[in-house]
Amino acid sequence: MQNFHKIRRLPPYVFEEVNRLKAAARANGADIIDLGMGNPDLPTPQAIVDKLTETVARPRTHRYSASRGIPGLRRAQAAYYERRFGVKLDPDTEVIATLGSKEGFANMAQAITAPGDVVLTPNPSYPIHAFGFLMAGGSIRSMPAEPGPDFFRALERAVVHSVPKPIAMVLCYPSNPGAYTADLDFFKEVIAFAKKHEIFVLSDLAYSEIYFEGPPPPSVLQIEGAKDIAVEFTSMSKTYSMPGWRMGFAVGNPELIAALARVKSYLDYGAFTPIQVAAAAALNGGDEPIVEIRETYRKRRDALVESFSRAGWEIPSPTASMFAWVPIPPSMAHLGSLEFSKQLLEEAQIAVAPGIGFGEHGDGHVRIALVENEQRIRQAARSLKRFIDRQHNVVSFNAATR
What we know:
The chain is 46% helix and 13% strand. By secondary structure, the protein is of the alpha/beta class. The strands form three sheets. It has a seven-stranded mixed sheet with strand order 2-8-7-6-5-3-4, with helices on both faces. The termini are far apart.
C-alpha cells in the first residue's frame, strides 16, 4: 500500500489506535462508554421511517435514481433555505443532493483541484476538509479554526506567501471539533476578502440546527453576493438523526454546483430513491423533530459539563454542535491527546477522540461527542473521578519520594 501515491499522502488514521483498543476492551467484556465517534444514537423520527417504508414498497423506486437528487428533494432543500435563512436558491442549478456532506466535500475537491493547487483549511478541523484536497492532488495551508482577528491575519499571510495563490478556503461553523460559531459580520468580512482575492468559499454547515444559546447559526449565503463564489454543504445526519441514510446537500454558486454534478455523474446514481423521498418529506414536514433532537443534545451537554466538572475535569460548555472541545487536564497535558485518550479508555472505560486526529493544533484537546444518554454520561463521570483520583495519588506519591 505504501507504493500508492495518494495513500502515501495520507497520514496514519489516528482514531484507529483508539478504535482498536476499544474493540479489544469490549471483546474482553469491558463496558466502554463511547463518547468518541460523532455517530448520532437517536432514532430517526418515525414519520421519516414511515415515508421510507411506504415508498420502498413501490417497485418503480428500486431503479437507478438521479445523481443530482430527485427534483422534489432539491425543491425541498431550496424551500428549507428560504424558510430558515431567507436565501433563495434555484433547485435546478444551485442545489445538488450528496451522499452526506463528507462525500460532497470530497467530490468537490476532485472537481476543482489541479495538482499543486493551494486550499486554506482550518486546523484543527474535520479530516475531510483537508484530506479531500490532498487526495485530489492539492496542497493545504492551515488557518485558525476560531473566528476572530487571528483568522484574518492568517488569511492575509496565506495570500502573500502561498505559491500558487489559494484557490479556495474551507469554513465550518458551528465547527467540528471546536464547536466555534460565527456571525454574519464575520461571514461578510470573509466574502469581501475572498472576492477581492478571487478565492472560492466552501462552507460546512452540517450542525446548523444543533445550537443551544444565542441566535441560530447563519448561512454564509445570507451575505449579499456570496453565491458568486460560495458553496455550502449541509447534512441530514445530525439535524434529523439520519447518519446511516447518507443524505446531504451542496448549494450555492451554479458553476461549482455544475462541476460537482459532473464529477458525481461519473461516480454514482445518487442515494436510493426511497431515501430521497423520505428526506424530502422530512424537510417539508416542519421543525418539531428538529426541536426535540436539539433539546436532547442540550440536556446531554448540561449533564456532561456538570458531572465531568464535578469529577475534576472542567468542560467548556459548547454553545452549538454535538461536541465539546476540551483541554486535557493540566496534570496530564504532558501526555498529549493520543496517549491521554488511550489511558482514559484503558483505565476509565471512556472513549474520546484525540485532538491530534483533527490536526496538529488540536493536540492539547480531546473531542467529546454527546452520543450517550444522560445516565451513561453520569456513569462516565463516576469512572472519570476514580481515574483522576488515581492519577493525583500517583503524582503525589512520586513527589513525596523524590
